[in-house]
C-alpha cells in the first residue's frame, strides 16, 4: 500500500435530487469502483443503495459496505 492509497479525497453526488458529499481514501474509492463494475451498476446506483441502508455518515457506510463485500 502506497501513501497515495491513504490520501483522502472528497466526492460529490446527487442522491434523491439533493447533492451530498463524502470523503474516502483513494484505496476505498478504487475498490468502490471495482465493486460497482462487478455488480454491473453505476457508481451512483451503488452509492444510492448504500445510502438507503445506512445508519451512520455516508463515508463510514461506504467503508463498512466495502469491507463486508470483501469478506464475502
Give an overview in words:
With 72 residues, the protein is an alpha+beta fold. It has three helices and two strands; from the N terminus they run E-E-H-H-H. The protein has a single domain, classed as Ribbon-helix-helix fold. It has a two-stranded antiparallel sheet with strand order 1-2. Helix 1 crosses helix 3. The protein is globular. It starts with 7 loop residues before the first strand and ends with a helix. The mean pLDDT is 94.
Q: Would you identify the CATH architecture? A: Orthogonal Bundle
Distance between the termini: 22 Å
Query: How many helices does DSSP assign?
Result: 3
Fourth CATH level, the homologous superfamily:
protein bp1543
Q: How helix-rich are the residues, as a percent range?
A: 40-55%
* Tally of structural domains: 1
Question: What is the helix/strand order?
Answer: EEHHH
β-strand amount: 15-25%
Oligomer: single chain
Shape assignment: globular
Characterize the biggest β-sheet: 2 strands, antiparallel
Physical arrangement of strands within the biggest beta sheet = 1-2
Q: What integer value in Å does the Rg equal?
A: 12 Å
Determine and state the CATH class. Mainly Alpha
CATH topology name, in short, is Ribbon-helix-helix fold
Produce a short descriptive summary:
The chain has 72 residues and is α+β, with helices and mostly antiparallel strands.
Keywords:
two-stranded antiparallel sheet, 22% strand, 2 strands, Ribbon-helix-helix fold, alpha+beta
Please describe the topology of this protein.
Blueprint: E1 8-15, E2 18-25, H1 26-38, H2 43-52, H3 58-71
Amino acid at each position: 500500500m502506497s501513501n497515495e492509497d491513504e490520501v483522502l479525497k472528497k466526492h460529490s453526488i446527487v442522491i434523491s435530487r439533493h447533492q451530498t458529499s463524502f470523503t474516502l481514501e483513494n484505496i476505498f474509492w478504487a475498490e468502490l469502483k471495482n465493486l460497482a463494475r462487478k455488480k454491473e451498476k453505476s457508481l451512483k446506483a451503488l452509492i444510492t443503495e448504500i445510502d438507503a441502508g445506512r445508519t451512520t455518515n455516508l463515508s463510514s457506510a461506504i467503508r463498512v459496505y466495502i469491507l463486508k463485500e470483501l469478506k464475502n
